[in-house]
Amino acid sequence: MTPADYLAAALLLIGGLFFLAGTFGLLRFPDVFTRLHALTKADNVGLGLTVTGLAVQAESWAVAGKLLLIWLLVLLAGASVSYLIAEGALRRGGVHGSADRLDHRCPAGLGTDGTGLGGAGQWRSV
To answer: Structure pTM?
Structure first.
């Protein structure tokens, strides 16, 4: 195996670990927004590392360019879909999945105006 093969294998392995971390974040975090953050960040980095690992093994610059274009299109699509999911969660009133984490004693807290969208809110450790 050449050094390029080792580099490509390492990049693919690390990219796969980022995908795995994003999946754990999706399953583990409590609300829509933290899940979206974990999933989009980890998947974008994971795909970037995977594309880079594949580009190292590409036969030509044209193939590497196509891989880069695919990655950029996925970044754009991921950001658009994440925005739509977050906007839908806000419209449904799902600002936070765990209401006990919000300190309702704060007059400017989230949800004090009945809409779930007002104020900055004061978070306390659980």
So the answer is: 0.69
